[in-house]
Amino acid sequence: MVLFLLAGLFGLLSPVAAMAAGGDITIHGEGLNSTEPITITQAQLRGEELLPDGTTLEQNDVWYSTINTWPTKKWYRGVGVKLTDLLSLAGGLRPEATMIKFSAPEGFSAVFTVQEFVYTPRYCFPNFMDTGLPGYLPGDTSESMQVETIIAHQSVSAQVYEEISDDENFSDGEANLLLFGQRAVTEQTNARFVKNLTQIEVLTDPVAKWDSPLAEPSPGEVPVGTMVRLSGPKNDEDKVHYTLDGSEPTIKSPMYNWIAWRWWDSRQDELDDINTPIEITKDTVIKAKVIGPGKEDSDIATFTYQVPLAAAPVLTADSTDNKIGKDIEITFIDNESWRNAIIEVVINNSTLDQDKYVLEAGKIIIYANAFADTGDYTILIKANGYQDAAVSQTITGGSSGGSGGDPKRPPTLNADTNGNFVEEYIRITFRDDRAWRESIDRIEVDGDSLSSKDYTIGEGYIEITDTVFSAPGTYWITIKATGYDDASIAQKIIDNKDAVLTITGEGVKETKTFTWEELEDMPQQQYVYSVINTWPSKRWYIGEGVKLDDLFAEAGGITRDATLIKFFSRDGYYMTLTVEELLEDTRYCFPNFQDGGVEGHIPGSSSGKKVVKPILALKSAESSDDPDDMNKADSLLLMMGQRAVTEQTGPLFV
Predict the structure, then answer these.
(1) What's the predicted TM-score (pTM) here?
(2) Which of 32, 253, 385, 553 is at a distance of 20 to 30 A from 356, taking alpha carbons?
(3) 214-306: CATH, from 2.60.40, 3.30.300, 2.60.120, 1.10.490
(4) 345: helix, coil or strand?
């Protein structure tokens, strides 16, 4: 396998190279007080041209936190006009207005209810990245700021907060861009940031309601340990929020389907770690509802599960060593399943710390320090799927916590892809699990245990000091916690801080890193690509960069047994392609593929096709075949041709 790691580069867009974008916007619809459509010119949107009343539109510079459906977190910043100001120019909303539809060329549109989009507060969460880049790690909600929805004629996006503060990074390449805040820190808003917006329509149609979520298996009596999976109608932007405490779920309640359905095939190996099934260990009531854009929230669905309780073994008190200062043994006819299911041991209504007892076949040894005085103690042992077991112990007793058997599952670890350089600390992130954190007793790097001074454990992260990683390469980090399976992650350490690209893996003969300057010094190839996305619609791309063949040659070439190439971007997104489909199959640009129309479901003409090679583009332009429109906003960008005139290659442009 070839692992092709794109470290990612924040794209700087110079004013000279910037692609002129953004046209007029038409605002209309039965939900407006104005009966006639109005058109806002691009110059008026930018505040460069007067409105009919002699005023100019107020310009707003707004910052946004957002999450896509992969999911990963990102920052956006835009300069533009508030949506409410534009609607006011069209007479404002009528009381009958129900929905707002934002449309772009090629048929793409996004619909929101007026209630969710106009009347519900939306926020930017400036600290939401503190828990890590993955979008399924709930961010810090402190210092949230209410933000207005704008139509931006200039914008910039990045994973690093500081990079959006530089005005020189603004681009008009996505103008007019719809930007809006989050209702909750976990809301996935990025998929509906409509770019190249041309129409705003206010509707009075009845608002549909999302269908209620489903649960598998069906509610009822289930064995202990049953894993319940929740699903929404589409499992995409329609998110299932749920509670387990009997309260009604809201958009701030835990989310189930973090990864959208469109990515499931790409993330099969980690799907259950992120869209985590709910384990039923006792009688449980799950309340869930679907919340998503463009429709009213679904009705709340209630799923009630009962766990039949098996009889626990009979406990026998210790009558031989039951003296103060002595360990005692509570015995029973051994039942391994029951031992492995133990979750809590209680002495006189107080849970016993795990280090004060040990479980063995047929007995529980409770250490002497569990009993401060002589007397009678009631010892209660709780196990998932079993009735409580109790015994009265004179002078001594008790044990607590932990599973007592099969280890628990640790959280999934995420490698550091931002600061992973030689002699710098790295931060491993995870969805916070306090019990697991507090059970960590050892951290190993390549099998060697670290000293406690070499790492710091915090909520949702583990930082390992800069002295641990003295050379470039891949390090295997293992976290050991009492009562849990080991948690491991491969951490790549890069030699050069300036490196923007690393090629590594068993499918190449050597690991190779590249700086931006080194990529610029390599032979540059320029191609025009015909592209179809999954909407589907057709569009042109033009790019200039380095051929993949040349990059792999720098890494010593691809080995004979190489089968797959995996492309990673800095935000955690990745795409896997076979060596055969990407490098061996012939790919083309079809210059006449739009002859039948721009809709992707209409097969285009394949006449005049030209062979094109896959490249990593240092500069590119979307919706254009003009070299003058190219910029660095999306660099490094994987670009490739089509094997057939109907192939949908748009999602493969990483």
Answers:
(1) 0.63
(2) 385
(3) 2.60.40
(4) strand
